[in-house]
Amino acid sequence: MKSVIISHAHPVFSKGGGELAAYYLWQGLNAKEQHQSWFLGRGGPEVMHAFTSLAVIAERDYLFAGNATIPDLTATTELDDESDFAQLLISIQPDVVHFHHYVHVGIESIRLVKKVCPNAKIVVTLHEYIAICMNNGQMVKTDNRLCLRSSPRECHLCFPHQSPENFFLREQYTKSFFRLVDQFVSPSEFLRDRYVAWGIEAEKIQVIENGLPAGDRVTLRPLHGDEIRGRFGYFGQINPYKGVDVILEAFARLPKKVRKMVTLDIFGSALENQTPEFQEKIHNLLDKLKGTVRLHGPYEPEEMGSLLGEVDWMVMGSIWWENSPLVIQEAYKFGRPIIAPDIGGMAEKVKPGLGGLNYRARDSVSLASVLQRIVDEPDLFNSLHETLPDYPEISEITEKHLALYKELDMGDA
Amino acid sequence: MMSEVGSSQVVSLTDSDDLRFYIDFAFSPATGSLMLLGWLYDPQNKVRGFSLLQDKTKKIKAREKKYDVSSLTESHDGVRLSRISRLDVASALSVTESVQKPFGFVLYLPQVPADTEIALELSANKYVIVPFKKYANNEAIIEGLKKYWVHSGDAVLSMLESVLDKGQPLLDACHDLNVRMLPQRISTLTTTINDEDYAAINVDHVYSLGAGGLLVFGWKHYRKAGPKSITVYECSGSAVDVTSALSTIIREDVWQNLDTDMPGMSKECGYVIPVPITHTPGAEYAIRFAFAGGKDFYLKLKPEKMAVDGVELAKQILAMFYMPQSILYKLYNTFDSGVGACIDYLSQEQREQELPVDIEQYGEPASNAAVSVVVPLYGRFDFVRHQLAQFADDPDFSSVDLIYVIDDPSIYDQTRQLVTKYQSLFGVSLRLVSYGCNLGFAGASNMGAKVAYADYVVMLNSDVIPQHTGWLSTMRTALDTLPQAGAVAPLLQFYDGSIQHAGMYPKRSPALPGFLLNTHRKMGQAWDGDTSSYEVPMLTAACVMMRKSEFDQVGGFDEGYIVGDFEDSDLCLALRKLGKKMWLVPDAQLWHLERQSQKLTSEVGQRQLITLFNGWRYMKKIERGELVDPTSLEVSA
Asked: Which of B425, B493, B591 to mutate to probe the A interface, most A CBs <10 Å?
C-alpha cells in the first residue's frame, strides 16, 4: 500500500505539534513492511527552488510550495493537472492521500487529489478549528470570549468587515471539498464534536490520538533536604493563546513564603513576534518573579525528555480549547503530571486525579490555588505520578491508521 | 441749428459736448400718445431733464411739462420709461455701458399734442431740440420697430401690453414681430431673470435628447401669481406650450442660498420641463414665462452637449431631483408629465448600439447541452469560484451550457484570471462573454441568452448557490410537466434558511401612489418544508428557467429599465401574455446571498429614483396592455 502524508509544514523547519504528528506517522508507516509512504511538507519560498514547486529532503520526503489565504483557505498556487504537486501524485499513484492539515496548502488541493488520483482515498486529520473559525481556528471570539459554535452572523460580529454572507460562502466552499473526503481523523473527542456540530457526519470522523516515538520515563530528580516537588515547566510557544501570562500571574499571586518553595521554567519561543503590549506584560511579570521564573528560550523535540527530567510538573496555560496538544502526551511519555486548564481537548486528556490537576481556564486565581495545594499536599504528586496514563506510541497509532486505510480500501472492493 | 427759446438758448450738440441723445424711432400707439425709442450718452451728467415744447415760437410753455431724466417714473402723468441696455451704442462709441445707467430707453407719453417737439435741457438754460418723425400707420410702425426690436422689443411690448387693450391690431402685430424676431433675439437672452414684481427664474441645465426633445431644469420663485403660460420658441418662431409640462421639484440647495434674499421662497422651487421639440445640434431656444398683466420674461435655452451615454445622462437627470424621498407622493405624476418619456428615450439610445461581443470557451464545449445557464457578473467576480465549487459534483452540470456574462469591464481581467485558475479543477465547462461595457442586468442576460445553445435557459444570479445537486433536472421536469408552465423558479433562501423568494406578487404602496411594485411574499419567514409546486403571479430572475424559444418570442428581458428592476416581473407578465403560467418549485432549493452581488452605492436616493422610474415605465406598459396586469390574476389574491 502506498500513502502520501501531506503536512502544512515540514518539521525540519517548523516544530509545531501538527507537523510533528504527521512526520511521526510517516516514519511509522515506512517502518511497516509492504507499506510505502511519502511525506510532503509545505515549505515557504525561502526554502524552495526557483522554478519548481518541489524539492527533495530525503527518500520519499519532499518539500512542496504551497500558499493559501486564511480567510477563505483558497490556494494561491497552481491547481491544474500539470502542476508539480499533481504530477508528483500521479507519479506516486497512492492508495491513500492523507492531509495532515490543509491550511497554508489550499483547500482546493483536496479536489486536485481527487481529480488526478481518482481511486485514492482521501483522509484528513483535523487539527484546530480553522474551517469553522476565521480567528486562526481558535474558536475564541475576537473580544477574547470562548466560542462554542459558529454562525455567519456571529462570525460577522467578530469580523465586521466581512459580511455574514462571506462567512456562509466560506463554510459552503470548505464543505464542498470536505464532501470529497473519505475519512476524517480527529485527535480528540472534543474537536470531533465541534466538527459534527458544524455539519460533518459523525461516522465520518474517527478519533485517533497523535502518536509519539517510543521512549522511556525519565527518573524523578532527587530532592534536597525538605524540598518539595515544586518545580514546574512550561513547554510551547509564548503567545496570548497559550496563556503563559495566566501562569505567570498565578505565580505572582502566591504568597512570598510559598513562592520561595516553587520555580517555573519556561521553554518556548516566539515572544519577540507578539504585540508590544503582550511583550511588555510578560516582561513586567518576569521582573516581578525574579528568582522564581526562568526563561530558557526555544527547545528541540529531542530535548523534551531531559528538560522534563529537570522539573516535577508540566503546567499549561492555553486560553483556547486546544485539540490534542502533543506536550500532554510528551509529559505522559516521560512521566510527569500536568496542570491543565479545564476546557476542550486539555480537559479530555488531563482529568482531575488522572494525569494531573485542572484549574479554571483563563483564571490565574484558580491556578494559584492549585499551586498552593501542591505545596500544602506533598503526597499529591506521588499519587498522580504513580497513576499517569499511557502515551500513544507511534507504532500503535500507525496500526490504527493502517487499519483505517485498509478499511477504506476495502470499501471499494 | 441755434434758435432762441424765450430767454433761453437752443443749441445744437457738437462733438465737444461729450453728450449724445438720439431718438431712433417714434410712433403713436394710440391717438394722442407717443412712444419713443432712443438712447442717451451723458457721462458728465449734463442733462437735467427734457421738456415737451408745443410752442411754434419755441417758448418754454409749462414748467410742469418738464421731466427730470434721473427721477422719471411711471407715476408722472402716466408716463412710462424703461431703461434698456444698448450694447450697439456702447460698441459704436467705444465706451462701456454700466448696468445702473444703461444707454437705451423706451419712453411712453400718454398725452402729446400733434405739434409737440422734444427738447433736452442742459445746464444754464440751454436747450437742445431733438427732431424726430412720428409714425402712426401700423405697418410703418412695425417696419420701423423691427430695426430696434432685438434690444428694445421686450420693453416696447411690455409697455404696449400695459397701455393698449387686448386685441388691438398694433399689439397683435408686435407680438407677431416679437416671435419673428426671436432668431435674432435669442442670443441676447440670458438664462436668469430677477424681476422685483414678478419673479426670479433660472435655467440651470438644458439637456438635448435629440428626437426625444429637450429637458429643462432650473428653479423659479414667483413673487405674485405664477405665469399664466409658459412657451418655448424655436428659431423658426414655432412655439410649444409647456405650461402644464412643468413639474416642481425640491431644491434644498437653492432654497438655502436664496431664502433670505427671497422671502417666502419655497423649497419646492426647482422645476423640470420636458419640451417635445426635435433638437438639431447647435440650435438655441427661448422660453417665455408670461404673467398676467402682460409681463413676459424670455430666457435662453442652450442645450448642453451629451458628454455621456444615454443611460448615464438619464441617471444624471434623475440625480437632478433633490430630496427625492420628499416628493415620492407625486413622482408618478412627474414622470407622467413627460419627464419619464424623456428618460425612457435616453435609455433607449444605448440599446440600439451594436456591441462587439467576445466569447471565450473554457473546457470542452457543451454544445449539445439541454440547458443553458446564464450568469451576469457585476462588481463581485469571486462568486464564480463558489458557484463552480458547488456545480462541480452535480451530474447535471456534466453537460450544461454555462455562460458567465461580464457586465463590468473593471472585473474582466480578474474574472478571466479566476476562471483560468479554477475551471479545470472544478471541471465544469463554461464560456465567458464580454463586450467591454455595462449593460445592466437585462442587457447582460439577453447577451448571454443570445449565445446560448440549449432549448432551456436558466437566468441565474451570481450570488445564488445551490443547496443540493439535481436542481436543474428538478426545474426542467417541472417546466415540462406543470400546466401551461412558462417559467419555473426554485425556493430561494437566505443563508440562515429564511425565505428570500417563494413567489413574487404585485403590491401597491400608499406612499407611492400610481406605482405598482413587486413583493416577495413570505420573505424572511421560515419555510414550512412543503415541496409541492404552486402557481404564483411572477418569479424573480435571480434563478428562473424558461424555454429559450419563448424567452426569444417575448424579446427577452426588456432593456429599457435602467440598471435593473422590474425586468423579471416584466418578463413574467410578457410570458403570461402568451398564456403561460409561472410556477414556484420548492423541490429545488438554492441559497440567495442577496445584497452581495452588487456594490452598495452611497447614492441611495438616486438608486431609489431609478427604481421608481423603472416602476413608472413598468406601469405604463401594463396600462398599454403590453403586459398582463398582475393585479387581475387570481393567484395574486
From this structure: B425
Mean pLDDT of A104-117: 95
Query: Which residue type, as a one-letter code, is found at position B383?
Result: F
DSSP per position, B271-305: EEEEE-----TT--EEEEEEETTTEEEEEEE-PBP
pLDDT digits (tens, 9 = 90+) for A112-167: 999 999 999 999 999 989 999 999 999 999 999 999 999 999 999 999 999 999 99
Is A111 part of the contact surface with chain B (CB cutoff 8 Å)?
Answer: yes
Cβ contact B393–A176 (<8 Å): yes
Question: Could you say which of B389, B463, B595 has the minimum Cβ distance to residue A173?
Answer: B389
Cα–Cα distance, A130 to A178 (Å, whole number): 13
In chain A, which residues have their Cβ closer than 8 Å to the Cβ of B419?
none
Distance CA(B283)–CA(B286), nearest Å, equals: 10
- The reported pLDDT for the residue numbered B188 is 81
Eight-class DSSP state of A222:
P
Kindly determine whether residue A79 and residue B422, on different chains, have CB atoms separated by under 8 Å.
yes
Q: Which of A100, A96, A73 is nearest to A16 (CA)?
A: A100
> Is residue B21 a contact partner of residue B13, using CB atoms and an 8 Å limit?
yes
Under-50 pLDDT residues of chain B:
1-7, 58-65, 70-75, 596-603
Q: Which residues in B lie closer than 8 A to residue A173 (C-beta atoms)?
A: 385-386, 389
Q: Is the pLDDT of residue A65 over 80?
A: yes
Residue type at B19? L
Nearest residue on chain A to B387, judged by CA atoms?
A173
Segment A219-235, tens digit of pLDDT: 999 999 989 999 999 99
A152 touches B: beta carbon within 8 Å: yes
Alpha helices in B2-137 (DSSP H): 87-93
Q: Considering Cα of B116, then B120, then B121, then B125, what sign does the dihedral take?
A: negative
Whole-model pTM: value is 0.78
pLDDT at B159: 87
Contacts of B395 (CB under 8 A, 6+ apart): B469, B470
Choose the mutation target among A69, A154, A169, A171 for the interface with B, i.e. most B CBs under 10 Å.
Answer: A169
* Predicted local distance difference test score (pLDDT) of residue B610: 83
In 3D space, the residue among B182, B188, B189 whose CA is nearest the CA of residue B234 turns out to be B182
For B468, the closest chain A residue by CA position comes to A176
Buried b (16+ CB within 10 A) or exposed e, A283-321: eebbeebeebbebeeebebeebbebbbebbbbbbbbbbb
pLDDT at B5: 40
Closest-CA residue of chain B to A174: B389
Cα distances from A283 to residues A249, A298, A363, A368, B247, in angstroms, run 12, 17, 20, 19, 73
Residue B421 near chain A (CB below 8 Å) = yes
* Nearest residue of A to residue B592, measured between CA atoms: A165
CB contact under 8 A, A177 and B389: yes
Cell of A223: 530532592
Distance CA B234, CA B237 (A): 5
Q: Is A410 left (phi over 0), alpha (psi -120 to 50) or beta?
A: alpha
DSSP letters along A163-219, please?
-HHHHHHHHHHHHHHHTT-SEEEESSHHHHHHHHHHT--GGGEEE-PPPB----PPP
Backbone φ and ψ of B514, nearest 5°:
100, -35
User: Which of B375, B437, B432 has its CA nearest to residue B409?
Assistant: B437
What is the tens place of the pLDDT at every residue in A372-391? 999 999 999 999 999 999 99
pLDDT tens sequence across A282-327: 999 999 999 999 999 999 889 999 999 999 999 999 999 999 999 9
DSSP string, A256-293: HHHHTT-EEEEE---GGGS-HHHHHHHHHHHHHTTTTE
CA dist., res. B118 & res. B66, Å (int)? 10
Are B386 and A169 an interchain contact pair (Cβ–Cβ within 8 Å)?
A: yes
